[in-house]
Amino acid sequence: MSKRRKAPEMAAPSRWPLVIGSFAAAVAAGFLIYAAGNARTEPSKPAQDEANVVAGKTADKQAPTSAASAECCDPPSIKQAKAAPDLGPRLPDPAVAGVPDAGEIEPTEVRDEKPAESAPEGMLWIPPGKYSMGSAYEPFGDARPIHTVELDGFWMDETPVTNRQFAAFVEATGYVTIAERKPKAEDFPGVPEENLVPGSLVFMPTDGPVPLHDYAAWWAYVPGASWRHPEGPESSIAGRDDHPVVQIAWFDAEAYAKWAVKRLPSEAEWEYAARGGLTQKPYVWGDEFMPGGQFMCNSWQGRFPYQNTKQDGWTRTSPVKSFPANKFGLYDVAGNVWQWCSDWYRPDYYAESPAKDPQGPIDSFDPNEPGITKKVQRGGSFLCSDQYCSRYLPGGRGKGALDTGSSHVGFRCVRSGR
Length: 418
Ligand SMILES: [Ca+2]
Fold this sequence. Notes:
Layout (H helix, E strand, L loop, with lengths): L11 H9 L1 H7 L19 H7 L23 H5 L26 E2 L12 E4 L2 E5 L13 E5 L2 E4 L5 H11 L25 E5 L15 E5 L26 H10 L7 H9 L62 E7 L29 E5 L18 E5 L7 E2 L3 E3 L2
Parallel strand pairs: 8-11
Antiparallel strand pairs: 1-3, 2-5, 3-4, 5-12, 6-7, 8-9, 9-10
The structure holds calcium ion.
């Protein structure tokens, strides 16, 4: 069991302790930031490998923009996209930046087998098949070797679980999420009682360029932040019924899944579903980031973490189904919010994964935080960009401590096929 309040990977979380010495240290150091009246709104998390690529290289003199406004609505346009400013150093182009010997790639096979039962509400049938799991994309060192995996058919939620759906769960069960519970003193020895307050991690854009290895610059533990108040106590989910629920710890997602008579997907199921029958394409929709000039997912445009030009229309989460579905009909399998899986995280698991229905390793290990047990997250978030975090690409892996949510982590569920 991990300590509370570790941030999810890909963003500040797993490196959090390295930066500020764990949540407990953060609290002790007075790192708490009360969001009341705070106009800044962006939530999210950073990635490791990507950070190393561009760390410290964005210190240009561009004037900082005011942080994103709460909800945004400007429709994206080709004209806006083409007017995008120079971002400076970028991550390698996913279409060409493959490493040699990443593993054998076999064509994806999707078998035309129908389920015996009719579709559960809000779920889609993902046919049985096999595919090459993993990625040759150079920054994704933990997504190799590429290996072929065979899966039975299963049902998957068409979208991430929304605020409306999670509210129904809470209404029916009285469930209280981890972010809403008071941290226990025994988990945080030496921390003053007054600092043991419920809360969660919130992304806050900086006022200007910062070194991209310094997660603490844009992540804050905000008392009062929870799924009901994603950016802190002054924020709310009013008007966001159809947005993915966020500030969800793995335990919260697991509790919802059991209530819904579903389960969290295995990592192999999640990637198979997200790829939609395509074979090792750089994006879940195909070969280009913007086919026909159209944004295909909610990611970050501009200079991370201080300038979000929201050319895709959204500075934070977007309503589910705001962007096109993939070839299986699934929405939001890239960007928007990270989604919890059932697998433990280990960077070396792919070398020993079974070929049939892998369920993940028997334990967890993250070399960046050896003492913290973590589960896999998939899909990237609205904070991903080609400048900083590219783990919205289909092979990208994230991870997070089981008791830690953040403002860009949600989930979706599956159900075994019948
Ligand atoms: Ca966006």
